[in-house]
UniProtKB/TrEMBL annotation:
The keyword NAD does not apply. It comes from freshwater metagenome. Pfam families: TatD_DNase (PF01026). Keywords: Hydrolase, Metal-binding. The keyword Oxidoreductase does not apply. This is Unannotated protein. One of its GO terms (molecular function) is hydrolase activity, acting on ester bonds. NCBIfam families: YchF/TatD family DNA exonuclease. One of its GO terms (cellular component) is cytosol. PANTHER family: D-AMINOACYL-TRNA DEACYLASE. InterPro entries: DNase_TatD-rel_CS, Metal_Hydrolase, TatD-like, TatD/YcfH-like. SUPFAM superfamilies: Metallo-dependent hydrolases (SSF51556).
């Protein structure tokens, strides 16, 4: 499989959402990419920091272990919106409550900067799972507020419910809409609340016109960039496994959409990531 590699960026940036632990056989084939190799490749093109996301209990524990010995990494821990119903179905109320407690405990580790990804996913689930998804989202919101960590939101085909629940519960001081998929109107609403808006490789797709319009109007101090690797690979590698070293394609697309030079774009992204997640 041939993957086009980008030129190094004019200034460093931070990948605010990555899954170094995920081995997707459809994308990767039989071999699991080595995290240290991926971190080195990313640094070589200017992606010098990464937030590793663990979105179930096992992945959360592994993510913390990875970050303990890798200074480029910090961590987000949470139950993916589809993970909470799975636990509830398999282990019942007691099992889900124990999972919430485990996330809260892990989230207090010094390498953990964020709670999540959490939120709602109405694309890959039927309506029967929505009450548990919504309960889990509310619990994560309150964990983030209780321990003073950033909240990372997964929102897929659930925009209004996500925003309603955030407003009802009261958002934490720092909120990131991971892999933003709304339009310019939603981006303006999020920006008005002071929430960070993170764009993935989808913004490089020619048909993502609503997303292009959103990316153009997000304030300079609220825009972030991510890979969501190994998924959502930017053009020209769409359909192939994503990794942090491919993120320069997304950074350059954002710079073009916002009519700024690459170094300026990278500077905003770097500063915003440190405001959203702290310095490391």
């Amino acid at each position: 499989m041939t993957i086009a590699s980008p030129e190094a960026l004019a200034a460093p940036v931070i990948d605010t959402h990555c899954h170094l632990d995920i081995h997707d056989r459809h994308l990767h084939g039989g071999s699991m990419p080595d995290p240290d190799t991926l971190i080195e490749l990313a640094a070589a093109v200017g992606v010098t920091r990464i937030m590793q996301i663990g979105c179930d209990l096992e992945a959360a524990r592994l993510s913390i272990q990875l970050a303990k010995t890798r200074p480029a990494l910090v961590v987000g821990v949470g139950l993916h919106p589809n993970e909470a119903p799975r636990i509830f179905e398999a282990e019942g109320r007691a099992g889900l409550d124990l999972a919430y407690e485990a996330i809260e405990e892990m989230a207090q580790d010094e390498v953990v900067r964020a709670v999540g990804e959490t939120g709602l996913d109405y694309f890959r689930s039927d309506e029967s799972t929505r009450p548990i998804q919504q309960e889990s989202f509310r619990r994560h919101i309150n964990i983030a507020k209780k321990i003073g960590k950033t909240l990372v939101i997964h929102d897929r085909e659930s925009h209004q419910d996500v925003m309603d629940i955030l407003m009802e519960e009261g958002a934490p001081d720092r909120v990131i809409f991971h892999c933003f998929s709304g339009d310019a109107s939603m981006a303006k609403f999020c920006a008005d609340q002071g929430w960070f808006i993170s764009f993935s490789g989808v913004v490089t797709f020619k048909n993502a016109t609503d997303l292009h319009e959103a990316a153009a109007i997000v304030p300079d101090d609220l825009i972030l960039v991510e890979t969501d690797a190994p998924y959502l690979t930017p053009v020209p590698n769409r359909g192939k496994p994503n990794a942090s070293y491919l993120m320069p394609f997304t950074v350059r697309a954002l710079a073009s959409l916002r009519s700024v030079d690459e170094a300026t774009m990278a500077g905003h992204l770097w500063n915003n990531a440190q405001r959203a997640l702290g310095v490391w």
